[in-house]
Design a protein that fits this description.
Length: 282
């Protein structure tokens, strides 16, 4: 199946980045969110991102203008009915995602593909709320989407070979590197990353070292570009906690138990960069 028009549900950090890379690769994009304010913020982020790429000489002004011209915005989910592929990029909550997919399933033409940008939620379970589980797949991009090369392509239990091949090839057209992943909690990225972040929080909680020293050990000792506590702030502590809950519930293994300090910080509204304070102040 040829993909020409792509819908993106959610104009937040991930959604606007996904819309940008599709539009920059020549696809018509319909970006949907619940309100005009969210859409304007999303488009503002896209304009800023493209502007930086122009400044660095990575794209021309003409290419930037053309990409922006391929994106239309809407608050109506029904406007995505013409799309060949819809990528959901709303917040990491099963019920909210399932509700969106139920509605989309009834709107799209039978051959259209539904994809979720979820970083941890069961693809098979989400696919089961639709009448097209064979045309349902995980397409997990990484933040910042225009710069990060990896895409985890997650096959649900019923995902067809044709759907997988279409989405894999599509990721390549976007200039990304697709990696095939089976549908287990946290997939590969967060199954490995979140226990590391959680263990760093435990080290802080137990007074093993200061937050700065924990981050320094991982940066200098393991050559990580940023320490795990800084990374947690960048991701969002609420998102980290949600993913750990998915891992804990999915595997029933105590090694995925969220650190009490992480829980308390989320309860206090200290969510990281987006709230102005997490392990560090911004």
């Amino acid at each position: 199946m040829e993909i020409k028009t792509v819908g993106v549900v959610g104009a937040g950090t991930m959604g606007n980045g996904i819309a940008q890379v599709f539009a920059s690769s020549g696809f018509e994009v319909k970006l949907r969110d619940v309100g005009e304010a969210q859409l304007e913020r999303g488009m503002g982020s896209i304009r800023k991102s493209l502007g930086k790429l122009v400044e660095k000489g990575k794209v021309s002004q003409e290419e930037s203008d053309a990409a922006l011209g391929r994106i239309s915005t809407t608050t109506e989910l029904s406007d995505l009915s013409v799309c060949d592929l819809v990528v959901e990029a709303i917040f990491e909550n099963y019920d909210a995602k399932a509700e969106a997919f139920k509605e989309l399933d009834g709107l799209l033409h039978p051959e259209a593909i539904l994809a979720s940008n979820t970083s941890s939620i069961d693809i098979t379970r989400l696919a089961a709320v639709t009448n097209r589980p064979d045309r349902f797949i995980g397409m997990h991009f990484f933040n910042p989407v225009p710069l990060m090369q990896l895409v985890e392509v997650i096959r649900g239990l019923a995902t067809s070979d044709e759907t997988y091949a279409t989405v894999r090839d599509l990721a390549v057209k976007l200039g990304k590197t697709p990696v095939e992943v089976r549908d287990y909690p946290g997939f590969v990225s967060n199954r490995v990353l979140m226990p590391m972040i959680n263990e760093a929080v435990f080290a802080l909680y137990e007074g093993v070292a200061s937050k700065e020293d924990i981050d320094t050990v991982m940066k200098l000792g393991m050559n990580h570009p940023m320490g795990p506590l800084t990374l947690a702030d960048f991701i969002g502590l609420d998102v980290c906690l949600d993913i750990l809950h998915v891992l804990y519930d999915g595997f029933k293994d105590p090694k995925y138990r969220p650190c009490p300090l992480l829980v308390k910080m989320v309860q206090a509204g200290k969510l990281g960069r987006k709230s102005g304070e997490g392990f560090y102040k911004y």
